[in-house]
Amino acid sequence: MLTRRSFLLGSGTLTLFALNSGCNPTTSSLRVSLLQGSIPPQLIQQFRQKIAQDNKIVIKPEAQLKDILTLLQKWQKSVNKPADSSEWQMPLINSGKSPVDDLVTLGDAWLEIAISEKLIQPLSLKQLSGWKNLPPSFAEIVQRDTKGKVSLTGQIWGAPYRWGTTLIAYRQDKFKTLGWEPQDWSDLWRPELKGRISMVDQPREIIGLTLKKMGYSYNTTNLDNIPQLSSELKSLQQQVKYYSSNHYLQPLILGDTWLAVGWSNDILSSLSNNRNLKAIVPLSGTSLWADLWVKPAMVNRDDTSVIEQWIDFCWQTQPAYLISLFTKGISPVILTQSSEKLPKELQENSLLIVNKSILEKSEFILPLAAELAQKYQDLWQEMRLS
């Protein structure tokens, strides 16, 4: 799932720098590096109207999340790293040529790396009204120990503001000749689709959907107790024509494959431009991803109120609607509201407003212990060589 964050978004260039025209960063400025397309410009305009005139919000869009991770690593190199310790410590900041941003976008799949490498620091969010409105699964996914593992007693390391799913996309014209349409992961094994599937090149996604097809969790730990898993993966391998985490949709659009498995923000963008494509959320449940606000480890400002205001603002009802309507993702706050109160465009979009029974069977992909992660990798290599 990591390279979903590296996919170059094709939703058009948003010149967010225009929102900062005439704004010189000051000590009271809020500096944010965000994933391009993950926050609508209207929301930034509204926030600027709500904060004091002497505060400025400086937005820097990044086309790929891996660029933001590179920024975090670059900033980390410019500071004195703390001594090794089981407890997280604040690095001491050195003078640098480029200012460090107060907040950046990061994906939940990268949270373990960012924490373990001390690239980010904990956030104080429990006093915010928006935090109290988050669904439990979204609050839990950002509570981690100092090694980046999910822990209900851990600190809060991120603020989820947008999420999505892994979907099945397919060519309607090709499936008309078959006389059926995909509904669930099990359809990927049907003989008619041999050599006609493209997928993200991600072991946790592919092994996870196979486990889901068999009635298990994406985060199954007792792989040795599922002897049929290996044969199921080998059978799926015969169905797949193409793996790529960046270009899995191109073969589908060109008709070289008939079905693709990938991430909702990519697929929703392609549906807008290709009427022949259709997508579904698998009935047995799917994997979830989330984009988060995280605070770089080297940020050290006395007044953090504007940071907390921005995070809480993104969790309010109207900003949540804007995020959900205009970013190919959905705000987690939406899940706490009745569907009847949502804008009509959202009510009618089953790829964003996922059926409750399906959502209850869906899950975030969690970090694994090293030994178990190696077992997943070994299964993946065995599958690809079959």
From TrEMBL:
Main location class: periplasm
Keywords for the protein's UniProt record, in alphabetical order: Periplasm, Signal, Transport
SUPFAM superfamilies: Periplasmic binding protein-like II
Localisation: Periplasm
A single MF term (Gene Ontology): polyamine binding
Chain coiled-coil ranges: none
Cellular-component GO terms for this entry: periplasmic space
One of the GO BP terms on file: polyamine transport
Pfam families membership: SBP_bac_6
Protein name: Polyamine ABC transporter substrate-binding protein
Organism whose genome encodes this protein: Aphanothece hegewaldii CCALA 016
